[in-house]
């Protein structure tokens, strides 16, 4: 949302993330993270610098990211979050922890040590690279476990069932409590002070001031809350808004049909109509969703987690309701999202049901259905599946005295018409840009 558009492979991209990487490495070195003795002391409760530095980075970044999202400077949906594989993640964390204790480094700190020509850092880094190679060569033997307990993009606010800004406040409070406990542990195990002589409060006024600033900033974020869909739409880039004016986000039904035939593309049709109209007729395989429920985080998160080869189509009786939902979902970052041009009314014009099943009424007002059905058909009519070979004839099951072939079709049946359309669907992919100590 902010005026920072960095494209992978460009000079600006390389310089920006190169500077961040060098800065991160410099901070680790200045914090003493290139020394195995300092890192290993963490596990003996003598020196808690690792916990304090890392958690300080976590909570400061959390407050800044949540603040940028609240002010509309950052689109959180475009921030890469590693997918959660619960049990493999737990096992991997334990393996890395054991390696950390034995070797004295994590992968990131070994790079810092190696860059300052420390021999133990170089040896550890070579061992880490060999471990990566060994993992790549053997992962197929335990791939079912490696890909098990998949939870997608799963964050603390989802786990706790609270707004993101509330989750940030809780993380800040937990970190400050850990800092306080770490100070006590350092003084007892690191400096040998008896528990009776240790004051139960930090000695530094600067630490108290820093903690107060973080808590105050978190409280402001909680009060302000995350932006509403209408606010997010106001901050949406101009090219996205322009696609409404030039109607490039509206897709002709014939293009939907063509994509449903394409084995390289997965299509999802979300029907935003009420249950009555949905039961009368809907596109084959469509899923009915309530427009308001669709905008809940747990609902649109599913759309954010879809594979890059998935295209989602929103459909109503007309276009109004689907367009409103499209704007709200695009504002939270849902990619490969389109609206079916003309809705179900236009679909039935191109792929009609028999006259004895439904007849066209007067032009529908707003998003009303422009057809009167004799009975509910759901997606059982061939016009719901025009991409299937078995539906390419016009069945007239309710007609009397009509000559039929052995397959139950009209004799002399004709295939669905082939309609010309301008291709609007363009698949967008997301690239993962990741980093960190591990």
From TrEMBL:
Keyword Membrane among UniProt keywords: yes
Residues in Rhodanese domain copies: 263-356
InterPro entries: Rhodanese-like_dom, Rhodanese-like_dom_sf, Sulf_transp_TsuA/YedE
Keywords: Membrane, Transmembrane, Transmembrane helix
Pfam family, one: Sulf_transp
TM helices/strands, residue ranges: 6-28, 49-74, 86-114, 121-142, 162-185
Protein name in the entry: Rhodanese domain-containing protein
Origin species: Anaeromyxobacter oryzae
């Amino acid at each position: 949302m902010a005026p920072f558009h960095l494209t992978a492979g460009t000079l600006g991209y390389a310089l920006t993330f190169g500077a961040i990487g060098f800065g991160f490495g410099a901070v680790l070195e200045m914090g003493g993270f290139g020394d195995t003795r300092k890192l290993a002391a963490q596990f003996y409760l003598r020196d808690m610098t690792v916990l304090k530095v890392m958690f300080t980075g976590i909570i400061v970044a959390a407050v800044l990211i949540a603040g940028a999202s609240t002010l509309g400077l950052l689109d959180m949906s475009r921030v890469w979050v590693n997918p959660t594989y619960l049990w493999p993640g737990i096992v991997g964390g334990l393996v890395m922890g054991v390696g950390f204790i034995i070797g004295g480094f994590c992968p990131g700190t070994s790079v810092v040590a190696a860059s300052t020509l420390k021999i133990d850092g170089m040896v550890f880094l070579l061992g880490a690279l060999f471990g990566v190679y060994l993992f790549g060569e053997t992962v197929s033997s335990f791939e079912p476990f490696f890909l098990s307990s998949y939870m997608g993009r799963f964050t603390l606010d989802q786990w706790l069932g609270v707004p993101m800004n509330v989750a940030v406040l809780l993380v800040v409070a937990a970190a400050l409590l850990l800092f306080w406990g770490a100070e006590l542990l350092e003084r007892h195990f690191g400096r040998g002070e008896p528990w009776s002589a240790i004051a139960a409060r930090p000695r530094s006024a600067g630490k108290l001031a820093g903690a107060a600033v973080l808590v105050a900033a978190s409280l402001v974020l909680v009060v302000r809350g995350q932006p509403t869909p209408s606010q997010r739409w106001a901050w949406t880039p101009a090219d996205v808004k322009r696609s409404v004016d030039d109607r490039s986000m509206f897709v002709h039904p014939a293009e939907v049909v063509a994509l449903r035939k394409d084995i390289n593309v997965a299509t999802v049709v979300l029907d935003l109509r009420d249950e009555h109209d949905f039961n009368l007729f809907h596109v084959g395989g469509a899923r009915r969703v309530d427009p308001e429920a669709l905008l809940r985080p747990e609902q649109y998160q599913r759309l954010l987690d879809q594979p890059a080869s998935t295209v989602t189509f929103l459909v109503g009786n007309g276009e109004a309701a689907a367009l409103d939902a499209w704007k709200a979902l695009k504002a939270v970052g849902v990619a490969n999202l389109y609206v079916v041009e003309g809705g179900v009314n236009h679909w039935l014009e191109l792929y009609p049901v028999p006259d004895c099943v439904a007849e066209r009424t007067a032009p529908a007002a707003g998003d009303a259905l422009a057809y009167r059905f004799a009975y509910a058909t759901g997606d059982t009519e061939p016009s719901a599946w025009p991409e299937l070979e078995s539906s390419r004839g016009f069945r007239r099951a309710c007609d009397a005295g009509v000559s039929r072939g052995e397959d139950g079709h009209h004799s002399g049946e004709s295939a669905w018409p082939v309609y010309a359309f301008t291709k609007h669907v363009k698949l967008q992919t997301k690239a993962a840009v990741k980093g960190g100590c591990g």
